[in-house]
Design brief:
alpha+beta, about 15% strand, about 55 residues, two-stranded antiparallel sheet
Length: about 55
Amino acid sequence: MTAARVLGVGRTTAYRLAREGTFPVPLKRVGRNYRVVVARLAEFLELDEEPRG
């Protein structure tokens, strides 16, 4: 849910996207739960780049 909040996506939508395989970042399924690879989320948000200026 943390990743969904960061992306501005509600809980219901996040789980629907996860089930459909269309969540904006890759997910890992652990039992009945979904996990987001933090590095992929940072990459998607372009937080892995050095600040400019």
